[in-house]
Amino acid sequence: MSEQAAAGVRVNVYGHGDATVDTGLPVLNRLLARLAETARFDLVLDIEPGDTQAEVEAAAGALGHALAGPLRAEGARGYGSAEMTSAEALASVVLETPDEPLFVTNVDLTQARIGGLGTDVVRRFLEVLAENAGLVLHVRLLNGTDSGHVLEAIFKGLGAALAQACERREARP
């Protein structure tokens, strides 16, 4: 059983890409900063210390809850997709806001370790994010062998897809 961690979050989906992130996990901090930069979201996320799983789930839950409103705001697209790279890695992220959240991926990095962070917790982060934001989230790795590059490509793709989904559609005359 994981120890609970509390989270404080603020997201401006019409920002400039400024991020102040403290999840207790430096690698996750960097990945979330890349997401915010790519999405051009201003993000402040602060997680109280707990065990690793609790910190990951608190960060994902808080971010998901914060994005649920803008994703469903009147006039918001509610869907987005992006293919992004990081060196040799190429990831595809597609998302939409349906009635039932779901996370689907072909990425298996359970054996990899980046900066002491088991990448299986990144999978858990994406699952909890999808659940709390109310997303169907598909993440596909099209190419890549370096775990750090793969994760960066995924989070950049996630940022770009979220930015599209939060965009306001122009009213038709």
Secondary structure elements and their pairing?
Layout: E1 7-12, E2 19-22, H1 26-39, E3 42-47, H2 52-72, E4 79-86, E5 89-96, E6 102-105, E7 113-114, E8 117-118, H3 120-133, E9 136-143, H4 147-166
Parallel strand pairs: 2-3, 6-9
Antiparallel strand pairs: 1-3, 4-5, 5-9, 7-8
Helix pairs in contact: 1-4, 2-3
Write a short abstract of this structure.
With 173 residues, the chain is of the alpha/beta class.
Describe the structure.
With 173 residues, this protein is α/β, with parallel strands linked by helices. 40% of the residues lie in helices and 28% in strands. It has a single domain (7-166), classed as Imidazole glycerol phosphate dehydratase, domain 1 (Ribosomal Protein S5, domain 2). A 4-stranded mixed β-sheet has the order 4-5-9-6, with helices on one face. The protein has a 3-stranded mixed β-sheet with strand order 1-3-2, with helices on one face. Helix 1 (26-39) runs parallel beside helix 4. The mean pLDDT is 91.
Structural class: alpha/beta
- Stretches with pLDDT under 50, minimum 5 residues: none
Shape: globular
Question: Please, how many domains?
Answer: 1
Helices and strands, in order, run as EEHEHEEEEEHEH
Strands of the largest sheet, in order across it? 4-5-9-6
Radius of gyration: 15 Å
Helical stretch tally: 4
Q: Which whole number gives the mean pLDDT?
A: 91
